[in-house]
Amino acid sequence: MENTNTNDQYTPDSPGRSRAPEFYGFVAWTSTSLAFCLYLLWALVPDEYILWAGIEWYPSREWALLIPAWSIMLLITTYIVYSAMAIAATPSFSDMRAITDARTQFPTSDETNPYINADPSSPVLYDIPIGLVNRVLYYQRSEEDVVHSRNDY
């Protein structure tokens, strides 16, 4: 029976995909599992069995506790150090770097006002100056402004 689907002729050929990551993943998984099993055998099997197997030298058993303990402490210390570095690199609220940086893009004065966009499309992205933000958020209207705005209707 012949394939009569006309869309097959327009379907692009899929490029050949390498299976190397699958093999590397399998090797990493098996070697990690084997290393963990050997670690458990070394840590838990009595000395007589290790000597009976023909192994004459192996590390001291105290390393069975020291390696996980040092690993956990290294992980905790890493979290603390990175958090401290982030806090130290953060500028204070009174610093100008907390408001603006080298990549700030304010609109030029010869352009139309990008903050009042009549066009339904998305405007070009600009940073809003902090003075304009403060005026919009914290503008205190006087009593005269309130009376005039009521009379306008």
Automatic annotation (TrEMBL):
InterPro entries: GPI_Anchor_Biosynth, PIG-P
TM annotation in the entry: 23-45, 65-89
Cellular component terms per the entry's GO annotation: endoplasmic reticulum; membrane
Membrane topology: Multi-pass membrane protein
Species classification: Eukaryota, Fungi, Dikarya, Basidiomycota, Agaricomycotina
Intracellular or extracellular location(s): Membrane
Main location: membrane
Organism: Collybia nuda
UniProt domain PIG-P: residue ranges: 22-138
Keywords linked to the UniProt accession: Membrane, Transmembrane, Transmembrane helix
Highest taxon above the source species: Eukaryota
Protein name: PIG-P-domain-containing protein
GO biological process, one term: GPI anchor biosynthetic process
